[in-house]
Amino acid sequence: MLNTAVRAAQLAGKIIIRNFEQSALSVEEKQKNDLVTNVDRECEQAVRDFILSKYPDHKFLGEEGGIQQAAQTDSDSAGKERRPVKGKSAPKSNGEYVWIVDPIDGTTNFVKGIPHVAVSIALQINGRTELGVIYDPLRDELFKALRGQGCELNSRRMRVSENSSLDGTVLATAFPHRKRELVTTYTKIFMRVFNECADIRRAGTASLDLAYVAAGRLDGYFELGLKPWDIAAGELMVREAGGIVTDFAGDTDYFNSGNIICGGAKVVRQIVSLAKEDAKSL
Question: What pTM does this model have?
Answer without folding.
Answer: 0.89
